[in-house]
Each structure stands twice: as structure tokens, then as C-alpha cells.
Amino acid sequence: MQDKIVLEAANLKKYYHRGSEIVKALDGVELKIKESEIVSIIGPSGSGKTTLMNLIGCLDKASAGSLKIGDTEVASLEENDLIKIRRENIGFVFQRFYLIPTLTVRENIELPLIFAKKSINEKKLLVLLEEVGLKGKERIQVKYLSGGDKQRTGIARALVNDPKILITDEPTGKLETEVKGQILELFKSLSEKGLSICIATHDLELAQATQRIIHLQDGKIVPREKSDLYY
Ligand SMILES: Nc1ncnc2c1ncn2[C@@H]1O[C@H](COP(=O)(O)OP(=O)(O)O)[C@@H](O)[C@H]1O
Ligand SMILES: [Mg+2]
């Protein structure tokens, strides 16, 4: 099916308390992400990008509103159920990679499987390595990899549990322009296989290369013409 919605946020809010002050990090966000879609979320520093990623990644709970991952309403779930939804649906890719440098590419990719107490399917691992462009590099310790290959390892690790949505916060932040392009190409080929990808970034070039750009400002989605960012 082409227009299957994998994620739907409605009037999503996240408030933080700082002393007596309330910070409205997200203030009523409406968002739908379809299967196979690449969406970028852009906005100035402090606009709520990371907060939104943490919510849709089920790493944190909303203060109010609704968030559906597939058919499940997650806004009201308890931590244990949230963890389950996260493991079954979400993969994360981080700017700082968060890989273990002294472990090999393969060992880093396998980590989530160990946490999920799943056994390792050799065939699948090979397919994954091929898919992300790391074939033949599985035995190299991560500390010897280039930045691009570190991010490929991060992406493979995010995919090992077969998520439906890949969430990335500034995935190309530490990479050279040429490598950024390669990572974007990789995202595109993954999305063509059905994965939905949500990229938070302040990199306009990266955002412009995605199918849809969502502008966040002061915790709200604003139309492009009202955004502080112009291009
Ligand atoms: N844990 C927290 N406690 C208090 N305020 C926070 C916390 N996390 C984020 N904020 C505030 O929420 C707003 C949005 O932050 P964030 O989501 O990190 O924005 P962005 O990723 O776009 O830079 C900012 O004003 C930030 O200071
Ligand atoms: Mg951020």
C-alpha cells in the first residue's frame, strides 16, 4: 500500500519545568509520516527538534496530545510497553555515532540483538552489511573506520531489529560534504524498500534533498513562508 501512515502525532505537547518557569518545547505538533517517506525536520536551535525526535522515537513521554506508532497509541503507555514499541518499530542513528570503538563493525551491529535477546541470523547480517555498503569490513575495529563508515555502522545497527521508522538527529553533522551525499543516497535506497526516515537537522542542503521539509519554530510547526529559515 502506498499511503500507509506509520506515525501520527496530534496536538503533541512536551513541557519542561525549569525552576518556576515552564518551557514549551513542543506546543501542539501535528504530523503524519507515511511508509517509505523521508521527512526532514528543520528549525533553529531550541525549536524543539530533539524533543520531537525523542518523543516519536519513544525515548520520552509527551505531556499531552496523541502519538500513534502504527495502530498503537503510545502517549499513554507505561515505560515497559513503550520499550517494546520502540524495539519493534524504531531505529536510531546519532550524530556522535555512539559506537564502541574497540569492538568490530559486526559486534557493534549485533549489540541491539544481544539486548533484545534475539539470536543472530548470519544471512540477514550479510544482507545488511551489503545494503549499507560495509561488506568485507565486518571484522574491522570501529576505531579504524572513516567517519562515513562509522555512520554506516550506526545505520546498520539501527536497522538490525527491522524497524519501520528510522530516526536520526543531525546524522551528517560530523561528516564531509561528499560523505553526506553518500549517506543521503543510502537513506533513499532504504526508504525505497519501505523504511520511513525522519531526519532532524539544521543543514538546509540535507533537508532540501528529502521529500518533505517540516519547519519547527518555538515548538510549533510553521509554514515555510513564516519560517525564520529562508532558502
Ligand atoms: N531536559 C530539558 N529540561 C528543560 N528544558 C529542556 C530540556 N530539553 C530541552 N529543553 C528546552 O526545550 C526547548 C527545545 O529544545 P530541543 O528540543 O533540544 O531543541 P533543538 O533540538 O531544536 O535545538 C529548548 O528551549 C530547550 O532549552
Ligand atoms: Mg537538537
TrEMBL record:
It comes from Candidatus Sediminicultor quintus. GO terms for molecular function: ATP binding; ATP hydrolysis activity; transmembrane transporter activity. Residues 7-231 form the ABC transporter domain. PROSITE patterns: ABC_TRANSPORTER_2. It comes from the Bacteria. Pfam families: ABC_tran. Belongs to the ABC transporter superfamily. Macrolide exporter (TC 3.A.1.122) family. CDD domains: ABC_MJ0796_LolCDE_FtsE (cd03255). This is ABC transporter ATP-binding protein. InterPro entries: AAA+_ATPase (IPR003593), ABC_transporter-like_ATP-bd (IPR003439), MacB-like_ATP-bd (IPR017911), P-loop_NTPase (IPR027417). Keywords: ATP-binding, Nucleotide-binding, Transport. The keyword Transcription regulation does not apply. GO terms for cellular component: membrane protein complex.
